[in-house]
């Protein structure tokens, strides 16, 4: 069990280090870095490499933003098997809608409760 925590920390930290290096060394903006990490997660998922990473690292691979790209591809693939080309578009939204909705709701609550400095 300790090894599971160790590898989750190492893999999650490595993903974060790559993102930080993209901003510091590559001089990418946070938006560009975020988009790139999502696309990399989607590409890894498309080649079947992200699921083994999740099996190995657990939360170390499911918490970083690369997992969002994986979720988009997995949703599209699942729904495309059922509904064809239309499923590709609807599947991405079906799988990720709860996370996006939660982010919007909690962002609104945070903005309503806390007063920004400035």
Automatic annotation (TrEMBL):
Spans through the membrane: 6-25, 32-50, 85-114
Top-rank taxon: Bacteria
Keywords: Membrane, Transmembrane, Transmembrane helix
Coiled-coil blocks: none
Matching PANTHER family: STAGE V SPORULATION PROTEIN AC-RELATED, STAGE V SPORULATION PROTEIN AEB
Protein name: Stage V sporulation protein AE
Organism: Pseudobacillus wudalianchiensis
């Amino acid at each position: 069990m300790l090894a599971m925590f160790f590898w989750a920390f190492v893999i999650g930290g490595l993903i974060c280090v790559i993102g930080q290096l993209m901003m510091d060394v590559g001089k990418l903006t946070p938006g560009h870095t975020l988009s790139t990490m999502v696309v990399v997660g989607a590409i890894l998922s498309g080649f079947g490499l992200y699921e083994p990473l999740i099996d190995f690292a657990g939360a170390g691979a499911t918490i970083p933003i690369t997992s969002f790209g994986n979720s988009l591809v997995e949703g599209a693939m699942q729904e495309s098997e059922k509904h064809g080309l239309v499923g590709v578009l609807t599947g991405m939204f079906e799988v990720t809608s709860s996370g996006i909705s939660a982010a919007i709701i909690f962002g609104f609550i945070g903005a309503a409760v806390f007063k920004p400095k400035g």
